[in-house]
Amino acid sequence: MSTQVFYFVATLSIIFSLMVIFAKNPIHSVLYLILTFFTFTVHYVLLNAQFLAVVNFIVYMGAIMVLFLFVLMLLNLNKETEPVKSPLIKIVGLIAGCCLVVTLVGSFKAATITSPLILKNPGLGLVENLGKELFGPFLLPFELSSLLLLAAMVGAVLLSKRDEVEA
Amino acid sequence: MENLTTQMAGVPLNHYIYLCAIIFTIGVIGVLTRRNAIVIFMSVELMLNAVNLLLTAFSVHSNDPSGQVFVFFIMALAAAEVAVGLAIIVMVYRNTKSIDINVLNRLKW
């Protein structure tokens, strides 16, 4: 069962992400997206990136998914209201996507790295190691990201506020 | 946990590359073929997650924690992006009563 877990979870993540874009109902898309993020969390655990697994679980499956579901419920879009896109555009989009994946896989085959993934330092993805990195060389970007989050919060509140003057 | 991760040593790095390329492409197809703005946002999230997984795999491969720090920053950026983007979508819905992105084509000129 050594590497079987990876291939099983990889298959699951591909299936669920296909379901995200092919589900008719947006609510079903969000639910499949939650499952996809869960499989990504399993991938992080398998890579021994435990801090990222926990952050992925909390931020993506907690905060971002609640935001998506909340907006869907708020706009009352839980019925299949999506206008039908012409099949021509769908076929062209699919062909373009297939061309992209062929190009990507072909170019990665040229520059292939077949060496197996070996975890040299078992403490690589733990909180202690990442914290030392985050508050050492990456201190300035860390503080700047707090500024980014503040700006995003103010911007979101300002955007979704009703315009009192015009109304 | 230690047992499991030492057993994982057999997965080659290029299988991670292929998985992330496929999931990134699924995100691109979602952006190209859907008209619902929220589903398009979800496809963008899929693309971001594919890149995150690839960064983590390369970080483990080259034994460098910087890759995982980048993933942390990308997650913070994605949270900010989703908050502002959904606020814009709510705004568009309030003004046009629809989240069909083709309503926005008059922004072109």
From TrEMBL, chain A:
Keyword list (alphabetical) reads: Cell membrane, Membrane, NAD, Quinone, Transmembrane, Transmembrane helix
Q: What is its main location?
A: membrane
Q: Which family does it belong to?
A: Belongs to the complex I subunit 6 family.
Q: Pfam families in the record, alphabetically? A: Oxidored_q3
Where does this one sit in the cell? Cell membrane
- Species of origin reads Pedobacter jejuensis
- Enumerate the GO terms in the molecular function aspect: NADH dehydrogenase (ubiquinone) activity; quinone binding
Record field: transmembrane? 6-23, 30-51, 57-77, 89-118, 138-159
Q: Which InterPro entries match?
A: NADH_UbQ/plastoQ_OxRdtase_su6, Nuo/plastoQ_OxRdtase_6_NuoJ
* EC numbers, comma separated: 7.1.1.-
This enzyme catalyses: a quinone + NADH + 5 H(+)(in) = a quinol + NAD(+) + 4 H(+)(out)
Give the GO cellular component terms, alphabetically. plasma membrane
Role this protein plays? NDH-1 shuttles electrons from NADH, via FMN and iron-sulfur (Fe-S) centers, to quinones in the respiratory chain. Couples the redox reaction to proton translocation (for every two electrons transferred, four hydrogen ions are translocated across the cytoplasmic membrane), and thus conserves the redox energy in a proton gradient.
Q: Which domain of life is it from?
A: Bacteria
The entry's protein name is NADH-quinone oxidoreductase subunit J
Key word Lyase present: no
What is its membrane topology? Multi-pass membrane protein
TrEMBL record, chain B:
What protein name applies here? Answer: NADH-quinone oxidoreductase subunit K
The UniProt keywords, alphabetically, are: Cell membrane, Membrane, NAD, Oxidoreductase, Quinone, Translocase, Transmembrane, Transmembrane helix, Transport
Family per UniProt?
Belongs to the complex I subunit 4L family.
What is known about what this protein does? NDH-1 shuttles electrons from NADH, via FMN and iron-sulfur (Fe-S) centers, to quinones in the respiratory chain. The immediate electron acceptor for the enzyme in this species is believed to be ubiquinone. Couples the redox reaction to proton translocation (for every two electrons transferred, four hydrogen ions are translocated across the cytoplasmic membrane), and thus conserves the redox energy in a proton gradient.
InterPro entries linked: NADH_UbQ_OxRdtase_chain4L/K (IPR001133), NUOK/Mnh_C1-like (IPR039428)
GO BP of this protein: ATP synthesis coupled electron transport
List the transmembrane segments.
15-32, 39-58, 70-93
Relate the assembly described in the record: NDH-1 is composed of 14 different subunits. Subunits NuoA, H, J, K, L, M, N constitute the membrane sector of the complex.
Q: How does it sit in the membrane?
A: Multi-pass membrane protein
Enzyme class (EC, first level): translocase
Q: Where in the cell is it found?
A: Cell membrane; Membrane
